[in-house]
Amino acid sequence: MNIPSKYDPAQVEEKWYSYWLENRFFESTPDDREPYCIVIPPPNVTGVLHMGHMLNNTLQDVLIRRARMQGKNALWVPGTDHASIATEARVVNMLKEQGIEKADLTRDEFLAHAWEWKEKHGGIILEQLKKLGASCDWTRTKFTMDDDMSDSVLRVFVDLYKKGHIYRGVRMVNWDPQAQTAVSDEEVMYREVQSKLYYLDYQVEGEEDHITIATTRPETILGDTAVCVHPEDERYARFHGKRVIVPLVNRPVPIIVDEYVDREFGTGALKITPAHDINDYELGLKHNLESIDIFNPDGTLNESAQVLIGEDRFEARKKIIPMLEDSGNLSRQQDYVNKVGYSERTDAVIEPKLSLQWFLKMGELSKPALEHVMNDDVQLQPAKFKNVYRHWMENVRDWCISRQLWWGQRIPAFFYGDNPGPNDYVVALTPEEALEEAKKVTGNKDLTLSDLRQDEDVLDTWFSSWLWPISVFDGIRNPENADIQYYYPTNDLVTAPEILFFWVARMIIAGYEYRDKKPFSNVYLTGIVRDSQRRKMSKSLGNSPDPIGLMKKYSADGVRVGMLLCSPAGNDLLFDESLTEQGRNFSNKIWNAFRLVNAWEVDDQLEQPASSERAIAWFDARLNKALKEIDDQFEKYRISDALMVTYKLFWDEFSSWYLEIIKPVYQQPIDRATLDATLEFFGKLLKLLHPFMPFITEELWQLLEKRNPGESIMIAPLPEMHKADKKLLKKFEIVKEIITQVRSIRKDKNLGKNDSLELFVRNNANGDYPAGFEPVLMKSGILTGITVTVDKIEGAVSFIVKNVEYYVPLKGLIDTAEEIDKLEKELEYTRGFLTSVMKKLGNERFVNNAPGSVVDAEKKKLADAEARISTLEEQISALKSV
Fold it and tell me: Do 815 and 780 contact (CB within 8 A), yes or no?
């Protein structure tokens, strides 16, 4: 058949992805086969494909395609996450561009805009994943705000509330003033910033004396309700029980004592602002202090601040300094580096804020999730993350699950009465159920739906995605349905370490709470994709290439291979575009190898050469050895290593050795037995490569032989593994080394293929000479003969392989005088090098003080130089005797 000289990935990728979809190869329904299931970590509906997605989804596709070829009923469930904060921010910005403010819209009007935005932009990333070759069952695509998914979330909220695990209360939360919502501890990213430390004097009430405190946030003094000192700090003993005056607002506040104070920090005296610092909040509860919240939800100062009302918190900080100078309260200021928390979603500086929120008690719920990871029922790959996981889970805090947003699952809590108090509410799945519950609670049978007001907040996005492995199979609403019974627990989860607690731990918690089973058996934790300078890839740095552009340039298979070649589990991936180029080059290598084999004419009457017979036996053994290695690497989740074994098997062993041995002489035919064996090997190699490189392998597999409609490599079984002949493999490694030495002699001596060489073999007492492989040696080494001898061969170049001496006579083939001159120059250089190494090793100071590895390296140089000198002297002597 006529195969194009160049591989055209764009045409091939479009053709075969459509073919797979048309034949519904990605789809799965329960049957009698062993299930294998992965649920995709749902990307944000706001997202577009980035390099992290490329890595994560390539790994998932490799696992799912391999499982499919192992005969399992493989299902990869796709979907997207509604991403409350990120999506609402996108919609708010879109509306602003249209001159519409969120505050001017009703909730329903805003949600109509949000759904419209979602329908227009929400499927982009899934379409991009198809370009990568992702073999998801797209008929099962889920969105975390689908009706059935939201219903599951609300049912879980009601259930946990009724079990006493959910409560409502005022707590210190991480407040994002830009999104105007609470965010969880895990959504706060800390950075070191250059700040100022301000020293402020607080006048002691009724005295001339003062106490100096140090703060990085002078604007918060407006909410101070105490100053705290250590009970054993003698500097402040005389102030115990007294009061100080808060600057600018002239508020008298008590001086309290507590061992919490670090006497070494600042002045050893702390201003206490219970409404705006978590530690101050705890001290406020302990000492029954007043709490004064001076900030509006958007981070501006409110009327409780008394001064600078309406100013943004950072503007207030700038303006309050000259005011404190004028009042005589600013003692001094100094540069200071401290850590500041930023919202992961909006990058706004987090404001600790007292807020009435909904919380999920995590103490009891989290115990099974800790136990089953520690005992390896759920295995983290790599296992080093177990310690991180244990630390998080042993220090778990109650989860703030409410968000002050409109986009998301609205909390099913309903307040009753004209002026409801903080506890005048019921929790129910629907308004109708809430009404019946409210009637029971109040005893008021005249209540109507119009008397109820649903909580305005929505649930944290993670409160929906923690149910993902269950809810995608409708396991909350219909716990006995066929899908959840068959596919759950799923097998592998591929995700990033930074959401190990955010998402993974919470899914495990939900799994044991609602199925009494783990949600998955293995968690493969990828590294972060970084650039060659080890910087995390980001748009702002301009160091994140466009994945779609990369696939157009290097092919989807090329990018997949490039990503995987440098992605050991749990370690960061240092991405370089040359890796994807390497992937493309590998595709070209495979294509050209197929073109070579396809171009051979076959002669059915031709007898199989002995060299081909030996090569086939060897490669069959080598293939089986690789199959075992690949299985072992997959079992250990070393997917990058599994690819490398496959890569080397094709490039080094099959292309560079096997094909070179069996290929016919130019313009001569090949025998039928060798061609058939070669095509069978090619088919097996394509199957091994398919999970990594789905497109080119499908194209070549279809060309390998006539296929019926509906056939595909992706549902063909992987090659069966048989026991590899270790003795044969060992012998062939010696064969390769001998051939390499002979080829090196030809190259060094500028000898062409037409220059006849003969090989003599001496000192084979240990049987290390690979007898039986003479046909391979003669063909690949282009030798006219191989002779076993007991004598040294004069006038020959010699080399040693496994204690066996080999001689290649060069009489009449080289200019002896010129060769001797070249060797003597190398000998002189090597002797000089040996002298310098001996001098270094003779230096006791060097030997005693240098690291052992450095000394060992010098000793190896010494031994290598001595061996080379001996070889050169023998070669010169042999040539002089010619």
Answer: no
> Crossing angle for the helix pair 694-704 and 9-22, nearest 10 degrees?
80
DSSP at 411:
P
Which value, to the nearest 10 degrees, does the dihedral of the CA atoms of residues 637, 638, 639, 640 take?
160
Secondary structure, 3-state, 650-670: HHHHHHHHHHHHHCCCCCCCE
Contact 195, 356 (CB under 8 A): no
pLDDT one-digit tens code per residue, 141-170: 999 999 999 999 999 999 999 999 999 988
Judge contact between 246 and 240, C-beta under 8 A.
no
Q: Beta 796-801 vs 452-454: how paired, if at all?
A: unpaired
Sign of the C-alpha dihedral computed for residues 177, 180, 181 and 183 taken in this order: negative
- Cβ atoms of 453 and 495 within 8 Å: the answer is no
850 vs 855: CA distance, rounded Å: 7
Residue 764 DSSP one-character state: -
Nearest Cα to 628, choosing from 692, 730, 727, 720?
720
* DSSP assigned state of 536: B
Q: What are the Cα distances from residue 704, in Å, to 75, 396, 652, 671?
A: 28, 57, 21, 17
Cβ count within 10 A of residue 249 = 16
Measured in degrees and rounded to the nearest 5, phi and psi for residue 640 equal -60, -40
CB 7 within 8 A of CB 593: no
For residue 773, the SS3 value is coil
Q: What length is written for the chain?
A: 882
Q: How far is CA 708 from the centre of its chain?
A: 39
Q: Residue 365 is encoded by which pair of tokens?
A: 């719920």
Count helices and strands in the chain by DSSP H and E runs: 28, 31
Quick one: residue 537, left, alpha or beta (phi over 0 = left, psi -120 to 50 = alpha)?
beta
Sign of the Cα torsion 767, 769, 771, 773 reads positive
Round to whole Å and give the CA distance between 562 and 565.
5
* pLDDT tens string 550-600: 999 999 999 999 999 877 666 788 888 899 999 999 999 999 999 999 999
Q: In this structure, are residues 283 and 258 in contact, taking their beta carbons and an 8 Å threshold?
A: yes
SS3 label, residue 482 = helix
Whole-model pTM? 0.85
| In contact, 639 and 59? CB cutoff 8 Å | yes
- What is the Cα–Cα distance from 712 to 705, expressed in whole angstroms? 12
Neighbour-count burial of 129, counting CB atoms closer than 10 A to its CB (0-12 exposed, 13-18 middle, 19+ buried): buried
| Residue the block writes with tokens 């946990």 | 160
* Structure tokens that stand for 353 in this block: 């804020």
CA dihedral 471, 473, 474, 478 (to 10 degrees): -130
Q: Which segment of 249-253, 759-763, 820-824, 833-837 scores lowest on mean pLDDT?
A: 820-824
Ramachandran angles phi, psi of 241, nearest 5°: 85, -5
Q: Before 489, cis peptide (omega within 30)? A: yes
* The two structure tokens encoding residue 376: 């390896």
Residue 539: the pLDDT is 63
Residue 367 CA to residue 346 CA, distance in Å, equals 33
Q: Where are the beta strands (DSSP E) in 142-240?
A: 142-143, 166-176, 181-183, 188-204, 210-215, 226-229
Mean pLDDT of 491-503: 93
Tokens of 64: 């799912």
